[in-house]
Amino acid sequence: MALELRQSLGLTQQLVMTPQLQQAIKLLQLSRLELLETVSQEMEENPILEEQSQEELEGDDGAGAKKEEKEKALQESQEIESENPSVDDSGPDPDSPSLPEVTVEERVREDVDWENYLSEYNSGYSESFSERHYEEKDAPSFENFTATRTDLSSHLLWQLNMSNLEDEKKEIGANIIGNLNDDGYLDATVEEISLTTGLSIDHVKVVLDLVQNFDPVGVAARDTRECLLIQVAFQNLNGTLVEKIIKDHLKDLEEKRYHRIADEMGVPIQDILTAVAAIQELDPKPGRIYAAEETIYVTPDIYVAKMGDGFEIIQNEDGLPKLRINAYYKRILKNRRRVSDETKAYIQDKMRSAAWLIKSIHQRQRTLYRVTESIVKFQEEFLDKGIAYLKPLVLRDVAEDIEMHESTVSRVTTNKYVHTPQGLFELKYFFNSSISRVNGDALASESVKDQIRKLINAEDKAKPLSDRGIENMMRELNIKVARRTVAKYREAMGILPSRKRKEIRIS
Fold first, then answer.
1. Which neighbouring-strand residues pair with 479?
2. Choosing a second label site near 324 at 20 to 30 A (CA), which of 83, 283, 287, 506?
3. For residue range 176-214, what is the model confidence (pLDDT) as tens digits?
4. Is residue 78's pLDDT more than 70?
5. Contacts of 435 (CB under 8 A, 6+ apart)
6. Taking the domain 152-290, which CATH number applies?
7. E strand or H helix at 234, and its extent?
8. Would the pTM count as exceeding 0.70?
């Protein structure tokens, strides 16, 4: 069979991801803060974009038109003045009446008690606040003067520098502190620190023992057993039942097998429980108290408020600038004779980019509103009565309701928060898988989790509910759920199994 080249004509249709379309899709999944950063960056890079002032937004149409005319007149006058630099209005007008010079006469008040003033001014910080009546003043407390929080590393380095050590040992201590994780445990071995500093292992062990007794006691430990034993030694409990349990029965202690510990050690169970109570006072993660965890505040993208018999959806546009195209560049394009082709092409490109950004932001806000409106329609009973009435919902349901693709709904609900009468939720929260009831109805998985949490909170701590017991109780509540599903939901909520929730009480 001979090979030959042929030409054929075919018609195909495909979607081309233009940069403008990619930008529109990107704006859909941005959070509120990310959107503000993107708009701010675009305003810096694109001179065509400008923000409407608050006065223009609050004024009516007539006032806005008048203000725009005033701005145009002012701009034209500035252009005229720039074209006529000979006009000088910096000097005073000779025809204007002269104004008298204002003088300020300084006088010393006669009613000031200078003796008490000087005594308070000269008083040192050693005096108490009550003696100087500081609580009667509106000055902030000294705790509010510090903006940064001390972390574990700086706290330990301060103690190391206050110690009477040689420079070599301080170098070892700095390496030890630098290799601590957030829990306060040492991530490096003694041999690695010795190799890094070039000093002997014996020197490293001496400095390690010193650092382990810094505040908080137990830092720089290499495992949980060593951390607890350091705290036991610090409390002078060496040789006691507490130390023996930590040394030889830590695994049984973790599993709460107290009777097994009592049998192997040959001591009464009451003594074991007393020792366990002392161990529970220890801190297995001493570095956590200096963890640099900051509270993250969430600003809702949209509000849902109860209005009469229905709900009203309000978009949160506080802080989001109202963009528009600068009229100055429009006038430049109209004056074709004074604009070069290169300048005209640049302005047209920036103007298309600005117009597409404004359109994409408006489309994002409309899509977010429509998705929230559909969710409110499906979850109206939850907004009225609470989490127990949350209905099963998937992306397909909302997508079909608003006639959009599931991927668009997924992007819109990512990192978006809504404030409802039941609290603040991420839009993804309302999409739940369904759990069948005994009578055939469906229930949202979040409602099942909430019911499991309520059962565990109300259980007898001496006889906690097993996963099988929770399954049977859920069936009595008309909820059909398997034991492994109970275990999966319990682990997702961070709840321990029944053997670890059990509390043995001393009679």
1. 437
2. 83
3. 999 999 899 999 999 999 999 898 999 999 999 999 999
4. no
5. 392, 442, 443, 444, 445, 447, 448, 479, 480, 481, 485
6. 1.10.10.1330
7. helix 224-234
8. no
